[in-house]
């Protein structure tokens, strides 16, 4: 029979409050660090043991309960926000937060994260109540609570990041990266410029190629890579770790440093995206290329449509224009088109461009491996069986297989005879079911080139996605001064990259201090004022923004 005194103690609020705080502490520790998930339980047990030993939550007779509200409630709420972001994305990037607020977050497909946000908010209520009870009951906590509030504020990574960006405004050298920026200029062109097909694979990093950790999930891409040039060691710098940032880094040779305080109406949507620099589309359009962007998600999300129409692309297509053309109008996920549908439209677009004549460039962005679990296509479910809605490796194999199928279909129709195919991840993945295995060692992005004139080989270079722009241009036969464009260096040349010269962490430290490159990216941007309600909004799929 259970001990009556134990049952009596369990009914008291003290242990429920301490257990709530212990679980919150353990969950924060495993979410904000690289501790394994099972560490939650010993951390919680350690907290409870310490609480028992120190008699926390036991009221003393000479100190009546205080009715005041703790100063630490706001810092605890800020920590709750940080833990939610860390649990959702793995690494919290303040640049991504600012950019999406400014570029537009409407028509996103992250409905499950909104549900998670509601659940996190509800979970914070008992945590705040438990801490308030502890401070009001235990005079020792009440006396030290203001100091704790200061420590919680100082230690919050969100506020630390804001402080670092603020310090950049008064840094001694805020132009270190800008001095190393080389405006992209094509000096010479090949006699017969090749077409270009860029296939961005959402979050499908090269780390998945490790068979010991991830089995055969990457196998279709590994098989495809035997026919091309594979680059190993393409790392991720800060401000390049989300989709728009990854595409801008690889097409413009620069990290996406959000407009931030340069924007006088902080959260008015940006009318143009990085208008101060020339990118891949600008360079190819000037060479007579006809350019298309295709994506399964909305072009209005995160400014994708404005980026591409503002940088040389005459066809920009996303969910808005592609979904109505589906044979099955209900075959959509929360973000947009499944990858098998997207690749059907990609094949169709390349046929159209071939018929029009002249060199063409097509960029397609998948979403099949979008965190947290991916959106595997119907074609994969017929091949691989049902998806459990959790295992990201299922979606990785699906996406890799669909890409291989697309390349083989294009080759069978003779559409890649004079075409450079670039297969690349847009960035490293955020938190997924395989997260602990992914962060167990060094990580790298996928980057491979396929072309008849390129001898298959593997090149081990310490690089970043900013090096993709000059690498692609030189693989197409264009000549660049010193093999450089933007902050990137061609990985087909012997010139050292910034990562090889300075290292990843020192470059990230410089990014936190940089202001001159940020101003270069957004130079000439005329930030809009609110328009009258009767004004007609711009359509991202039409029009060419002035440069």
From TrEMBL:
Keyword entries, A-Z: Cell membrane, Membrane, Transferase, Transmembrane, Transmembrane helix
Cited Gene3D superfamilies: Alkaline Phosphatase, subunit A
Membrane topology annotation: Multi-pass membrane protein
Region span, Disordered: 526-547
Composition-biased stretches (Polar residues): 536-547
GO MF terms, alphabetically ordered: phosphatidylglycerol-membrane-oligosaccharide glycerophosphotransferase activity
Transmembrane annotation, as ranges: 15-32, 114-135, 147-163
SUPFAM superfamilies: Alkaline phosphatase-like
Lineage: superkingdom: Bacteria
Protein's cellular compartments: Cell membrane
Protein name: Phosphoglycerol transferase
Originating species: Halomonas organivorans
